Amino acid sequence: MSRHTSEKTHPSKTRRAARERGVALLITLGLLALLGAASLAVILLTSSDAMINGYYRNYRGSFYAADSGVNVVVEAMKNAIATSANPAAAGAPLPVVGALPPAGVVANASIPAALTASYAPFQTSYYAIGDAGSWNSQFKMIANPGNPPAPVIGQPTYEWVCRPGDGNCPADGDYEWQFSYPYTITIQGQSSGSEAETVTESGIITYSSSPGTVASGGLPSFSKWAGFIDNFALCQGALVPGTMHGPFFTNQSWNFGNFSNPGYTFADSIGQASTKVGYINGNNCTVGGATAPRGFRAPTFDKGFDVGANPITAPTDSYNQEQAVLDGKGAAPCTANPCGNGNRTPPSGTLMSTMKTVNGVQYPASGSAPAGVYIPMYTNSQGQLAFGSDPALGGDGAGGGFFVNGNAAITLSATIGGDGTSNPTQTYTIKQGSTTTTIVVDTTPTLACPAGCTTVTSGTSSQTLQGVPTQLDPNTGVPITQTDPSGNPVAPTMVYVNGQITGLSGTVQNNTGVTITATSNVSITGDITYASQPVDSSDNLVSNTNAGVLGIYTPGNINLYPDSQGNLTIDASLAMLSGQSNGTAGLETPGRGIGTLTIVGGRSEDQAHGVNISVGNTFYDQRFAGNFGPPWFPTAQPTAGAPAIPQIQNATVTRIAWQETSR
Predict the structure, then answer these.
(1) How far apart are CA 18 and CA 11, in angstroms?
(2) Which of 202, 308, 324, 602 fits 330 for a cystine, CB–CB 3.0-4.6 Å?
(3) Count of Cβ atoms closer than 10 Å to residue 603 Cβ
(4) How many CA atoms lie within 13 A of 333 on its CB side?
């Protein structure tokens, strides 16, 4: 049996379903309203953001236009000052007010007409910047803030000083001039919109110059250069980075690497004959001018960068150092350009035969000589063994130093009582194979040695000679007395090596001047320092310094080897000059790399070589700025009366204050 049940829909359920459908509609409408509101908010936000971005873009464009305009106007003013000056003038190179003041006294200058004319075009209308197709921007120079407005150029001032170490100044007229032009400029920049921004900058444009040292007053030593490279081809390789003091010059192009920490800082003048500069980044080289390309870590030129300058004639062997050992004279420095090779005529065999070793071996008048250290010596009228060339054989009774035949390693020592006295002495230890020769030069007059003594020892043999090395004027035969800033005379010595110097290191005694010359390569195998320093850590001349002076000269390479700390310090002026226009002499690092190379003095070389040196710092020996230098060192070669070192001219900008004056 089965049961069938029939159901009916209740009226209350129908009403409940209808109510639920009404609520869903309301929720849907509410959601649509919220979505519409959110969409409107997004539209408004996007529109506002676009408006803000547009405003900021216009502001940024205007700001950069103003900032760029400041640089353009300041550069125009700086160039106007430099082109208005005459660095070779006998008097002030730029307009001044009144009579020339004493050295070091600041006086008023006047404003060159070209300076005012340089910024006038920027005051009349807007000046457009940027390439075609780039963002439109322009700038205009407007009145400075203030009532009345601050002048564009304030009161210029100037002063002159003698170059450090120049004992002939002010008589020689070789002054260093410095002019200062304070400025304040206000630039309004404008982009494609209506937004305009204004920038005000204050600073000082400084112009420095020197007319150069004239040859008629005596040819200057080539140690005047802190850095000279005859041949440095464009994009050949990057100069070692570091801080460089003193004048730098190349007859070709400087090449800079994209270095930082350290980069390049040139505290004094730098110049080159070429108008093109190499900027090397990795394996790429960009050819440009004095301004580094965009994105390159630009070198710092504290006194400007002079490109397209007149080339410098590198010296040949202006003195014949071999001859100077024998007679103290050498050959007279040339005054013609070029010098030629006349100064390299070897000494006569008769004069060479006046030299002997401490063991009595005489240098032969002809033919080859055995290796050894030969000293010019003779027996004087009192029967004493004297230092110098024998007058009976054509000598002059004087001698400049020591002749080393064959390869040798040399150690310099600043000794006290190296000859058994308590006097300051300079000791030379010369090693050739298993033979060591020691030479002690004592310039202090004593009862036993009224003109000083030279003591030579080798093995069991020892001789004390009356007299010490002397430098004579090659034209007159009169002794040349060079004094240092302390006022004391500098005792000269020439060490001539007919061969290679396989090792060189040590210390130079105070009041001692030494030039070491080799016919072949020189290897510096340890630090070479002065007993006292001529300059401080900021490269200022130490007042009343009596520091020694050293010159190292070779027509070959100077090989550098690091000290025990992986660095190397050289207090000297280095000359690697072959006398040939296509010479290749220069610095080399044949051993392991050098961390920091520090030179107190300078270097001159035929050609830039690739070296393994991380940092190269040069502290210029300020005494070299005058005619002070190592004895018998190569000299500059101008025509007589022409500048031996060309005039220096630099213009730099120091920014003091910068302010965005409207926004």
Answers:
(1) 11
(2) 324
(3) 25
(4) 23
User: Residue 225: is its pLDDT beyond 70?
Assistant: yes
Do 42 and 178 touch, CB atoms closer than 8 A?
no
DSSP, collapsed to helix, strand or coil, labels residue 284 as: strand
In 291-364, beta strands by DSSP E: 300-301, 305-306, 355-356
Q: How far apart are CA 326 and CA 410, in angstroms?
A: 20
Alpha-carbon 83 to chain mean position: 24
SS3 category, 277? strand
Tell me the sheet residues that pair with 152. none
Q: Could you give the CA distance from residue 507 to residue 499 in angstroms, rounded to a whole number? A: 22
Q: Does residue 648 contact residue 87 with C-beta atoms inside 8 Å?
A: yes
- Per the document, the length of the chain is 663
Average pLDDT over residues 242-254: 96
pLDDT of amino acid 21: 64
**Burial, 14: exposed, middle or buried (Cβ in 10 Å; 0-12, 13-18, 19+)?**
exposed
The helix (run of H) or strand (run of E) holding residue 439 is strand 435-442
Beta-sheet strand order (sheet of 277-281): 255-257, 277-281, 284-288
Q: What is the DSSP letter of 480?
A: P
Strand partners, 581: none
CB atoms within 10 A of CB 351: 21
Distances (CA, A) of 302 to 175, 205, 208, 210, 238: 19, 12, 11, 16, 20
Helix or strand run (H / E) with residue 196: strand 196-210
Positive or negative CA dihedral for 228, 230, 231, 235? positive
Helix H, strand E, coil C: the string for 205-242 is EEEEEECCEEHHHCCCEHHHCCEEEEECCCCCCCCCCE
* Tokens standing for residue 344: 């390299």
Q: What pLDDT sits at residue 130?
A: 60
Cβ atoms 113, 75 nearer than 8 A:
no
> Which residues contact residue 61 at a Cβ distance below 8 angstroms, ignoring those fewer than 6 apart?
135, 136, 137, 189, 191, 192, 193, 195
DSSP letter for 499, please: S
Find residue 457's DSSP bridge partners.
438, 462
φ and ψ of 233, to 5 deg: -65, 150
Would you place residue 174 in the very low, low, confident or very high pLDDT band (cuts 50, 70, 90)?
A: low
Taking Cα atoms as reference points, which of 302, 222, 305 lies closest to residue 256?
305
* DSSP states along 564-618: TTS-EEEEEEEEE--S-TT----EE--SS-EEEEEEEEEEEEEE-----EEEEEE
**Residue whose entry in the numeric block shows the structure tokens 């500048």:** 643
- DSSP, collapsed to helix, strand or coil, labels residue 633 as coil
DSSP characters over 147-175: TTTPPSB---EEEEEEPTT-TTTTTT--E
Q: Which helix (DSSP H) or strand (DSSP E) does residue 28 occupy?
A: helix 11-84
Task: Give the amino acid at 9.
Answer: T
C-alpha distance from residue 96 to each of 100, 107, 155 (Å): 8, 8, 11
The 3-state DSSP class for residue 59 equals helix
What's the start-to-end Cα distance of the chain, in Å? 100
Across 311-322, average pLDDT: 77
Cα 112 from Cα 489, distance rounded (Å): 46
Cα–Cα distance for residue pair 34/27, rounded to 1 Å: 11
> Can you give the pTM of this predicted structure?
0.72
